[in-house]
Specification:
- This protein has helices at residues 31-48, 89-93, 112-125, 169-174, and strands at 2-3, 8-9, 16-19, 22-25, 52-56, 60-62, 70-72, 76-80, 101-105, 129-134, 139-143, 148-152, 156-157, 167-168.
- With 178 residues, it is of the alpha+beta class.
- It has one domain (2-177): tt1808, chain A.
- The strands form 5 sheets. Strands 5-8-9-10-11-12 form a 6-stranded mixed sheet, with helices on both faces. Strands 1-2 form a two-stranded antiparallel ribbon. Strands 3-4 form a two-stranded antiparallel sheet.
Length: 178
């Protein structure tokens, strides 16, 4: 645990996030969760070269307007270089801005209330897109300021927050069958 005058940071594995006014340790990931996190990170990482940073379990300090800063740890986060330059390596360790895109992979133990809270906080903090991946149902829910969409295994994921990135969900979910 690290402390400062106004904030306590819980250093745990799995990570602890600040949800609904208090610390909540992330659900311990299972194999399907791990596979989805690996696949998303690998595919986004290749696409992001020269565009920004991609990382799993990356702590972001987010701050909705008029509220206290708190930390969230997306399963996979993307942050564009135009928001935090390539040269800002130290600041990238724990960015004090919301990710451009936050991917959350559902685990059986995730509480719907916590997931909904994270979506709300991400969006109010400046995240352009939140993606909820459900490996059990083989669906992907995309949420931005304008709309929410449910994609199924036969669909292709594309969004303006990730220009020129395209991912066939059948290819993503096929990794679960290996």
């Amino acid at each position: 645990m690290r402390t400062s005058p106004d904030v306590i940071v819980y250093e745990t594995k799995p990570a602890t996030e600040w949800l609904l006014g208090g610390p909540v340790q992330k659900v311990s990931p299972k194999f399907k969760h791990s596979v989805m996190q690996r696949e998303l990170g690998a595919r986004l990482g290749l696409w992001a070269r020269g565009r920004g940073r991609v990382g799993p379990e990356w702590r972001f300090w987010v701050q909705p307007a008029g509220e206290q800063s708190r930390y969230l740890v997306p399963d996979v986060g993307y942050l564009a270089y135009d928001r935090l330059s390539r040269e800002s390596r130290d600041a990238a360790e724990e960015p004090h801005i919301a990710p451009d895109v936050a991917f959350e992979v559902l685990s059986p133990g995730d509480r719907a209330l916590h997931v909904a809270h994270k979506i709300d906080v991400y969006l109010r903090s400046g995240t352009k897109l939140v993606v909820i991946v459900d490996p059990l149902r083989r669906t992907m829910r995309t949420i931005d300021a304008a709309q929410e969409r449910l994609l199924r295994e036969g669909d292709v994921f594309e969004h303006p927050a990730l220009p020129d990135f395209s991912l066939a969900l059948a290819d993503l979910f096929a990794a679960l069958d290996e």
